[in-house]
Amino acid sequence: MSTSVAVIGGGPAGLQAAATLSHLGLDVTLVEQQNFLGGAVARHQYQVLMPDFSSGPELLKRLIQTVNEDPHVKVYTGTTVGSVLESDGTFHIQLEGAHQESIKAQAVVLATGFDHFNPARDGKYGYGLFPDVITGAELEEMFAKGPIRRPSNGEIPESVAFIYCVGSRDRQVGNTYCSRVCCAVSAKQAIELRQQLPKARISMFYMDVRTYGLWEDTLYWRSQEEAGVVYVKGRIAEVTQLHGRPVLKGEDTLVRGPFEWPFDLVVLAAGMEPSRGTHDLAQKFQVSLESHGFIQQASPMQNASLTNRPGVFVAGAASGPKAIEDSIAEGDVASLAVYEYLKAKVTL
Amino acid sequence: MSTSVAVIGGGPAGLQAAATLSHLGLDVTLVEQQNFLGGAVARHQYQVLMPDFSSGPELLKRLIQTVNEDPHVKVYTGTTVGSVLESDGTFHIQLEGAHQESIKAQAVVLATGFDHFNPARDGKYGYGLFPDVITGAELEEMFAKGPIRRPSNGEIPESVAFIYCVGSRDRQVGNTYCSRVCCAVSAKQAIELRQQLPKARISMFYMDVRTYGLWEDTLYWRSQEEAGVVYVKGRIAEVTQLHGRPVLKGEDTLVRGPFEWPFDLVVLAAGMEPSRGTHDLAQKFQVSLESHGFIQQASPMQNASLTNRPGVFVAGAASGPKAIEDSIAEGDVASLAVYEYLKAKVTL
Known about the structure:
Chain A is an alpha/beta fold. In chain A, about 25% of the residues lie in helices and about 30% in strands.
């Protein structure tokens, strides 16, 4: 019998894990609930990736082609995990959906990714009520599909506001963590917007600008110095609407004054949450969640992919908010952990 | 002839790379210029690691023991790289110091780590002039060696200030990037300080608090809510001394007022720079540096460890500021990249 690994989730982390596991001599079944591979990059049609402005479609093409051309990787899209039984270190996984079969795996990689926070859950942003209030993911789709226009009337926006930390760092909505990438993604989007909207006023309303590491000057400073984006340290109390335009009410915490400013377009930098399936899969595979509902890393200083359960590993945003390149790296890290786990059990 | 890999640098990234390369069936020579392994963790005696308050010595013990006990890893401490010649994909490396020999390697991993910014280079902090102005690394050494006391007079400090972004995000000193971990490390240190100094006033002077991801509530919020640490958004113009105590002069950018506050102890959160040897090694191995002097990642979305030169890989803080667990993960990522590179060349 060949030694087989189940990878659950076909985003960047899962795709990388599937490819690398195969390179290490293992047979892989890659299970993806959507009818397409690529995870959030595909779902939201990310065109231009942070931090290096590389192409999202090209990244996906490479990752997807690699697994599709690999005879040792079975790709099951439109498929979900039903029941899971383990005996003697072998996982018997009943699949549902497009591939209703039972598979056996000696190890499992959970790469179930994230969902964006839905800003409709927090009434103060007016999301779902005011057509010109959109999410960052919806802005990505606008970049993909055509020119930037106000959804309400199709006009070119003359002023755009980004609101940071929507659904992140917010005890009231229950998400006390930071989503890591939204600051830098917003800076990237503002730089892209500037190319399309040379005259627009672009303002960022932030608590802290977390363009950490080498993103600092390449994204944050560049957005200010080249794209003329203005950063306002301010808390948004609510978004209302007046004369058909969204109005941001809040307090500028630097100049200590309240403001009430209309904008043509408001972009909500909505954070990351554990994907809808994560809780259910964690139960099925009996792995622990950490306090925010992400899959708990049992020993990150030893290996980022270890869970509390031997034979079950995690990669990518399933264990917390993460940038794409970090998710891809964790696909490798998980593959190595699987390899070493199985090497200790069987002769590969 | 066995297939051999040279790992340059014996910090967490290099140690992890050496161990993993061996697990993948390769022979490794680990070259470390210091007389000890462990990189910055050993050099500064980090006792309690961020983010999980795990033990630095235990981490090092595990990493070092693994390579020392591995018959496929030769460990050369006190050794540096002299000349490097490549022919037909084999690197001929002349070593200097404790092991003056020539080694052959089919691939090289550069894991040359970082140095802390030396605050004496920026006169405004009074570092080197005022005894009670210390660096975060020196505070770690205080934690390791004994109780926290004022260097000037041995008294228990009643007030402690941390200054963030020393040598980071600062065009004047030439470091335009953010060092990623100093915010969170300072929060960790403040929580530790509180245990020793239950009554001290502890203040953090910051530009942005970048406790990204899951560090937000576990370190930033916890330092405020459990340890009573006060965060002041403020820029420090200079540190002077009055009546034997350091005085912070600056502007509180939130309440818009100048301040001039004395403290018993001032901790400079000094950022990360490319290690002294990085530039020289990059020249010897003909790999490109990015704009800040770190080793350039050629294609991070494909693999974090790729450089512009085939056969030469990078791991850890040599390519930019990085947390310890990220450096360890990159040791794995680089090992896999080496493995796949060599697999394409020879039969392993």
